[in-house]
Amino acid sequence: MGTEIQEETFTLDEILAGIKETHRLILWNDDFNTFEHVIHCLVKYLDYNEPQSELIAWTVHNKGKCTILEGSLTEVEIYRKILKQEGLSVTVD
Fold this sequence. Notes:
This protein is an alpha+beta fold. About 15% of the residues are buried. The protein has one domain: CATH 3.30.1390.10. The N and C termini lie far apart (about 50 Å). It has helices at about 10-20, 35-45, 50-65, 75-85, and strands at about 25-30, 65-70, 90. Strands 2-1-3 form a three-stranded antiparallel sheet. Helix 2 crosses helix 3. Helix content is about 50%, strand content about 15%.
């Protein structure tokens, strides 16, 4: 009895998708920013709508943090700098 080996093939896109690192932009709760300011920034810079932004603001308030963006390090870092300039507490994970 012979052993059958099944060969598995992948496309270049599948390989690159598997090794691409995704980074997360995390918004942290703080004692400085109002709900209105947080919501305004999420709508203005991240294209969230008002209800989505409110939900994120409440999540941050109740849980202490919330992931607000996932993407490449370059993309996430750009938004981190923008939101930091607006006074929000954000980090990249």
